[in-house]
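Posting for a labmate who doesn't have an account.
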Amino acid sequence: MSGPSVRRLGYALGAEVTGVDLTGPLGDSTVAQIREAIRDNLVLCFPNQHIDQTALMRLAEYFGKIEPASKENVDPDVPLVTLLTNKPVNGKAWNKYQAGQNWHSDHSYTTRPTLYSFLACKEIPPVGGDTMFANTYMAYDTLSRKMQHIIDDLEGVHTRALPVSYRAADALEKQLALEQRDAVASAGRAPVAHPVARVHPETKRKTLYLGTRVRRFVGMTEDESKGLIDFLNAHAVTYEFTYRHRWTVGDVLMWDNRSTMHIALSDYDLYRDARLMLRCSVEGELSGREYVEDDEPMTSKALA
């Protein structure tokens, strides 16, 4: 092949990359061109790439250190790759919980949020199963100058557990959210504070870094924070800032979590139609800090 060819897929973000074979090793020049393409387009789709877990890991390793995968839904022989699916995995039936069905950036609740995420599409429903992405550069740039000044001084407190109020009225979904919240609390995982106007380390541009996992702003109560968090989260996913990817088996997607948010849509029959994706991700830079809440006042503690 002569080298990568890049074609835009959306106004706000997204591009298709052809002329690359992900089943084999990539040369330095190809990796450099992919880095440039992801910097310019934020989300890349490599079509017709029928790769396995090993090839997906090899692709991710060109761009950094692979993050540990979740303990559930993994192939024991390839533990760094997660299976995102509503199918049984390793003999265990689907537990009805769907990860990623909220606007977020991967692992924002850690001090090293995910740098790049990679998904390989292996099986999709007859219709639906789409993923949407939002350009968080645009989200910040289109705020008024006054609002930018306000959020430039704010830090958002991110937690792993989703708010129970986020989930639909279904009793099972609420119970799953409660169990997730309790599991996080029992594990002693501290919340993490990140700048709301986070600076991308490569482009030096500011992005709007929020999502559903943000509970409050440092130094403010949840009640005081809620109105502004809700406004900014809604603004961040304005239609004009988004790209909707309609999957085809063989697609491999790569995206930059520092300049995007994404959501996996439940636009298909979760109980009848199978969806299977292979996921691998690369660890990002140290950018957050542990958040410690005292009774009065609230404080945050920088990581050593």
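Reply:
Got it, the structure tokens are right above this. Confidence is low (pLDDT under 50) at residues 182-188, 294-304.
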